[in-house]
Amino acid sequence: MSEEFLRFQKDVTLDAVTANSHLVVSDDLKHVWCGKICHNPMIDPQRFTYLPCILGTPCFSSGRHYWEVEVGEGKEWALGVCKESVDRKRKSGFSSEHGFWIISMNAGAIYASSIPETRIPASSGLNRVGIFLDVEMEEIKFFDVRNDALIYVHSPLTCLEPLRPFFCPESPGEGDRGAPLSICP
């Protein structure tokens, strides 16, 4: 399934300026994980203050775009797109009502950020998610790349401003860091 979308593949990278201060971003801007240590406590209006999130680049205001993210063994994560202007000082929750069109993994189940929140059965072994954004059609599709299966479609995307790739990696549990999210080449 992802083969038909590969012609729309974009070189998405992480925008370190937007990273919550507990996130660690790789030098190549392709991997992010959440640690227990605050790395850069400086206040910045572009940064997510409370939630361990980061945006990607480029911004999308037209066209079709595809990228894949390795979620690995992570048990808690969120991926998708959000409005450029989302409230980065939010203390909880992501919903389409607040400009987030995402899916999230939590306790072995996948949830869509729809209103009301939609629970989606997770296929076993989900480790790579394909994301296809069609701005003109006002929809974003999520795929289980390994099993070649559609996970969920958010439509319509009611947004009149640029959209940004959105990433929220797993928080650390017993260890020093949570499982990473990796943008695939």
From TrEMBL:
Residues 1-185 form the B30.2/SPRY domain. Pfam families: PRY, SPRY. This is B30.2/SPRY domain-containing protein. It comes from Diceros bicornis minor. The lineage of its organism: Eukaryota, Metazoa, Chordata, Craniata, Vertebrata.
